Each structure stands twice: as C-alpha cells, then as structure tokens.
Amino acid sequence: MKNLTSRETQGVLVENRLDGPGQLGFAFRNPSSAIFYDWHVHPCHQITYARRGTTQIEGPDGHHLLPAAHAVWIPAETRHRTMIRDLDGVSVYFDPAYFPHGHMEHIHTFPITTMLQEMLLHTVRWQSGSAEHDPIARSFFQTVGLLCMEQMQAKTTRVFTLPRATHPSIVRAMDAALASPGQANLSLMLHHAGMSERSFRRHFHAETGMTWQEWIAQARLFHAANLLAEGQRVTDVAAGVGYASLSAFAKAFTNLMGMSPVRFRSL
C-alpha cells in the first residue's frame, strides 16, 4: 500500500481541483491500487461508490467502512483520511450551495439501488466544470444528489461505523485492538488501558455507545471485509480475525454486510 504524506495528499486535491471553490457537480474514477490518503478536508460534499473492493474512512466520529455495492457520504469541510484497497468505483463531488438542504452532517455509509449505482458511474462522462454550462449535466448531477439523499435517509439496520473515543486510556486500547483485531481480547485491552475491568467497561460504553464485545466484533468484521476484498480465502480470513467456527463467521458477516463472505469476495 502506498501511504501519502500530508503534502502528497494536498497535491492530489490540487490536481483534481478539490482545493478551491466548489462546482455544481463533477466526478472521477478512483485509483484501483491500494493507497492511503492522509488527513485532509475539501469544500465539496463527496459521495464515493464502491462497485468492487473496500475503502475505510476515518473521520471525527470514528472509522467508517465502505463495502462493495454501497456508497459513503462525506460532508464538505469534514476532516478525514481514506484507505483504499483495490477499489473499483467513482467519487462524485457537489458544491454545497447547489446540494439539497437537509443533508446529513456526519460521514455515513448507505446501500444504493442498481439504478443509482449506474447513475453514479455515468457521472464520469462529463469533464470538470461541464455542469456549469451543460443543462443536461446540471440536471443529472442534481438528480443524483436528490436520489442519494433519499437513500441516505432510508432506515437500515446495518451500521458501518466503528465509533472512536476521546478518553486517552480507551484510545490506547482501541489502537492496540485495531492493530490486530483477531488477537485482541479483554485482558490485553485492560493492560493497554491501565484500567480495572469495571472502569473500562463503563468508560467504553459511555464513549462509544457500544459494549466492548460489540465494538471488537464489528472491528473484526471490518478487517475481514478488507482481507476478502484482497482475495484471501474465506476460511483463512475467518481464522485470522478470531473466529473458531466458519459458520459463526459467515453468519456474523452476512448480518453486517447483507451478503455472505463468499459472495462478497467474488464481487
């Protein structure tokens, strides 16, 4: 994976005209190679759709997973960094002045219909700036924005966010768990946090709204999605993220992603 520095990331923003005033709408295909963009902001709303591969976005409120057949919303001026793994997809950007009011204020991953998937891919037919002068482009981007808003506001039981904490002790434990989610366990996290089990559980739930068990289970599935997107075998991934039972892994993964690990790997 290529890790970009802050200066290199800023260079990408400048190259793609994401460092200045927004445009009504424009899009470009995401790089297919594995790449890690450093912390950055841009003045446009961003919607990235993943046809294949996975992406993780870290923002102010935690880690967000973008699995295949989903899109992620990143509001304008939201500080974030992005890790792309073999992504086949597209990023579409909107000037907030032209985007429908009532949009979500936080990073949000959401499923999208087949029609909207094709519409998002179709946005790359227009060059940057076309929507300012081409009425068809202008209408198309506005329609895409409205349909994405509709999808974002639809209720879903799946949550693709891994909350972050602010308490230094909990942050230390989280960082250790994310470095090796398959090996993370409560006693090891208590050691990293330097806290009693009672205090750790109380602070953890207060910071994240999740129990430790819920949080680490989700972290393992996030990691599994990345490994499957790289083409690793389902049995190896299940064992690598801490599941002794392949059936238990398949059930947990399907509950989160809406598809089996085998199907997810084949996308």
Structure description:
The protein has 267 residues and is α+β, with helices and mostly antiparallel strands. The chain is built from ten helices and nine strands. A hairpin with a 2-residue loop joins strand 4 and strand 5. Helix 4 packs across helix 5. The longest helix is centred in the middle third of the chain and has 19 residues, at 135-153.
* Mean pLDDT over all positions: 89
Helix amount, in percent? 40-55%
Number of separate helices: 10
Largest sheet: 9 strands, mixed
**Could you state the CATH homologous superfamily of the largest domain?**
Jelly Rolls
CATH fold-type name of the largest domain:
Jelly Rolls
Named CATH architecture of the largest domain: Sandwich
Number of domains: 2
What structural class do the secondary elements suggest? alpha+beta
What's the count of strands?
A: 9
Shape summary: globular
For the record, what CATH class of the largest domain applies? Mainly Beta
Low-confidence stretches: none
Rounded radius of gyration (Å)? 19 Å
Which H/E pattern describes the elements? EHEEEEEEEHHEHHHHHHH
* C-alpha end-to-end distance: 21 Å
Tell me what portion of residues adopts beta-strand conformation: 15-25%
